[in-house]
Amino acid sequence: MLESEAVLEVITPGIQSLIQDLGRFGFASVGVATSGAYDRSALMCVNEALGNPAGTPGIECLLGGLELRAFRNVKVALVLPGQPSAELIDLQPGDTLTIPRVKRGLRSYLAIQGGLRVDSVLGSSSTDTMSGLGPAPLATGDVLARSTTIPADSGELADSASPTAAAQHRARRPSDEGNPRSDLSQSIDVIANLGTTHSTPGSVEALHTGTWTVSPVSSRVGMRLTGPNLGLAADGEHRSQPVICGTIQAPGGGELIILGPDGPTTGGYPVVGVVADHDLSRLGQLRPGEPISFTVRHNTAVSP
Amino acid sequence: MATLDVHRYGDTAVFIRCEPSQAALIAETCRQQFPSAADAWCGDGSVLVQFREPIVDAASLVREIQQLKLPATQVSANSVVTLPVTYNGPDLEAVAQESGLSVAEVVACHSTAEYRVAFCGFAPGFAYLYGLDPRLILPRRASPRAEVTAGSVAIAAQYSAVYPRSSPGGWHILGTCQSELFNPLQARPALLMPGLTVRFEAK
């Protein structure tokens, strides 16, 4: 039996603060998106810093501005966009914590030691902004509870012992090892999959060399990009095919759509590539107005 | 049996191109045969098998899926879902006009056909149904509605569908169905799953 205790109150949620874990799997066949943290490496980072299982639900805060007040002693971990490590913060009753407005990147992640206690829907506590599944976005006055026992099904276990001395201060993001993932300006690795997409050698070349701009009409459902035309034949309607987070669609003109975690499970636009798994987290940090370019790789060139 | 047409898709998934009538069965079989897969689901003549991590030995996986033995029939194929429909939709007249049928003929065409869930998408529980009478095949409405109410029974192109919840939509609305199509609190949340047979019954 799970026990829980109220630990934090939401004073103001900022633009958008959502509960997210590592996603809702197994129901795509009936149209349910995976959802989950957009920057998965950041959520895993804050959980690891606290000794929580990697998939423990945390808060994904868009652009900052979330303000919380503690009811009791609680240890939290925070990682701002692009930061290589989490900051551990001890809150006393009455203390407030504000996630700062971020000047680069988009999404900050906050976890609490023991994990947020949130009802799960179809195996996940994630908020799906498209379908409305999962908890409502955080609102002023919401009370956040902490699990006093860790649910067994909340994901792969991190080191279950209490955090080591090093982790108390700095927990490196898992994806940082040997690779500067935190550099938000790098190009995004894409796998073109000529056999399964509508790509042509010309469109692959155009995708590899062009630069696009992230449109303001972007969300967890999909990121719209404007830029050069890929030169694909406009041959009308396409049959709906299954799609995943990171699928790059070319609806026409110079526009591209990269599907996000709350995106649809099937789609009819031509597909020109799929973002490599290791770059999905960085996608979640790209701001409207910023340039984005792609490095097209073939599967054999992508190390696991 | 011919081998399946299998390709890699990104670095975490495998894409299978197939006969539309086989897609639901292939997805179901993949879910059973590859328990390490996060999920497998179908579109219109295609299936995706997704893993939570990048696939390490993709060549072997592709070979294994190429050789996949499909059961003769889908477990769910014998299940029939009957949906009672009140044919009172705002587009009945327009559909009758465009198809050259009377309203009564449109209702008869739609409610006597036998449908099969081809795939889902758009929203949780939204099922694209094959089997529409060819006389009712029309392009989507020129301007989509900002809100189509939950339970609306609609047609567009070669498909019919029931909107599980209110949402924007560009399909032609023929009627209303009171059945609960999606309940996230159930272990099997969707009433209409790929492969199921569906009939509409005029109330």
Provide a compact summary of the structure.
Chain A has 304 residues and is mostly beta strands. Chain A has helices at residues 40-50, 165-169, 201-209, 280-283; strands at residues 4-12, 16-20, 58-62, 67-70, 74-79, 85-91, 96-98, 107-112, 143-147, 171-172, 188-191, 211-214, 222-226, 241-242, 247-252, 255-259, 266-267, 271-275, 291-297.
Explained architecture:
The complex is a heterodimer of chains A (304) and B (203). Chain A has 304 residues and is mainly beta. Chain A has four helices and 19 strands. Chain A has helices at residues 40-50, 165-169, 201-209, 280-283; strands spanning 4-12, 16-20, 58-62, 67-70, 74-79, 85-91, 96-98, 107-112, 143-147, 171-172, 188-191, 211-214, 222-226, 241-242, 247-252, 255-259, 266-267, 271-275, 291-297. In chain A, strands 11-18-15-16-13-12-19 form a seven-stranded mixed beta barrel. Chain A is elongated and about 60 Å long. The model of chain A is unreliable at 150-171, 175-181 and 300-304 (pLDDT under 50). By secondary structure, chain B is of the alpha+beta class. Chain B contains four helices and 13 strands. In chain B, helix 3 (92-99) crosses helix 4. The radius of gyration of chain B is 19 Å and the shape is elongated. The model of chain B has no long low-confidence stretch (mean pLDDT 94). The interface between A and B is large, with 38 and 48 residues.
